[in-house]
Every structure is written in structure tokens, then in C-alpha cells.
Amino acid sequence: EVQLLESGGGLVQPGGSLRLTCAASGFTFSSYAMSWVRQAPGKGLEWVSGIIATGGSTKYADAVKGRLTISRDNSKNTLFLQMNGLRAEDTAVYYCAKAPKDHFYHGMDVWGQGTTVIVSS
Amino acid sequence: DIQMTQSPSSLSVFVGDRVTITCQASHDISNYLSWYQQKPGEAPKLLIHDAANLETGVPSRFSGSGSETHFTFTISSLQPEDIATYYCQQYDNVPLTFGGGTKVEIK
Predict the structure, then answer these.
(1) Integer distance in angstroms from the first to the last C-alpha of chain B?
(2) Tens digits of pLDDT across chain B (107 residues)
(3) Which helix (H) or strand (E) is A40 found in, with range?
(4) Which residue of B has its CA nearest to A41?
(5) Which of A50, A62, A107 sits opposite B46 (nearest CB)?
(6) DSSP class per residue in B35-96
(7) Count of Cβ atoms closer than 10 Å to residue A121 Cβ
């Protein structure tokens, strides 16, 4: 069964850091692009960042550029999101999502259950 | 950035009714569009990709159409389990962008 399991969320003060992890199973992780998508409380979906299958290219939404960094370890079937300089507006459920191909210029066919990040003093 | 304008933002219909949601892109995105269903407290689920291609296992009452800037999502006969918020998303260009969502409720 294809599965994505996020972890690492929590309560952090403004300006603080968190590292989100997404453990993948049930598919050849190294063959597919991955993305992080977030959803603020009561709001819609917002794509945050994407990384191609090899890890050789990454893209970010303007709202997070320079503060959030996506990476992957294909040997451990794991996706990461390093979050620095967190702001109140980063408060959201963060989903990791798999693309159906090796590039993130596609939809997202498998989603994790999400991990909650709360930025507050 | 490509803006995705989705309408309506909510609708209330009877079981068995036809539901139609539209999504307008600010630029030509060819057919690089997906539709997702999100039930309360759950992760989104991909229903349709490339504007009109139904994902495996998705009931045939769901369908999508359109190209370039105008897209339509239809539920031919609403079932109680279809209560959810639906989102369109373009993947023609980065940043990938979503429509604002359409909340579907039962009358």
C-alpha cells in the first residue's frame, strides 16, 4: 500500500525552527517528485515547495522562499522540510504529497495525513 | 503566478442533483489541471488529472472537462458521501496554484 507519513510538527515561537519529515512506503520513492502543501486553519490549499525525483531541482512559493528548504534522502525514502524564521502566517497543517511522475509539474496523486505546525508566542 | 478562480465558493443541493463547479485560469494552462476532494478532517484526494482523466477507482459520476482557461467539474448525481470541499489546481507553471475551493453541502 502506498503511504506517506508526516511527522515533526508542533508549537514553535515566532522566529523559531522546525524540521518536518515525510516517510514514504509502498512505492519506488526515488522515481517520483514530491511536494509540500499546507492548509491554514479554515482556509484553502497552498503549494509550498516541490522537489524532483533525483533531488536535483527544487521550487518554492514566494511566501516561503529563503526560509523553508525542501530536501529528500532517496536511500531512506524520506522527504524533509526544514523551516526556519517561522512566522504566525506559517501556522497550518502541512501535507507531503507524491507526484505521479518524476517532476512536480503534475498533480499530486497520494497525500499524507498531515502534520500541524503552530507558530505562536 | 497563475490565478485560479473557482466558483461557486459553496453550494447546497439535494441528493441526486447535478453539481457543476467551474475553474478559470488567469493564463492558458492547456489541460494541466487536477480536481481534488477534501472531506472534513481528511487529506485531499485526487479525483481527476489532465482536466478530464478520472483516477482509478473514482466513481464515474465524477467528470471533468475544459482546456486553456476554462474548466468544469461535474458530479452527475450527488450522493451523501460526496459532501466535501472540492479544489482545482493547475500544474502548468510554478508555483502550482489551487482554486479557492467549493464547499458542497446537502439541502
Answers:
(1) 36
(2) 999 999 999 999 999 999 999 999 999 999 999 999 999 999 999 999 999 999 999 999 999 999 999 999 999 999 999 999 999 999 999 999 999 999 999 99
(3) none
(4) B41
(5) A107
(6) EEEE-TTS--EEEEETTTEEPTT--TTEEEEEETTEEEEEESS--GGG-EEEEEEE-SSSSP
(7) 9
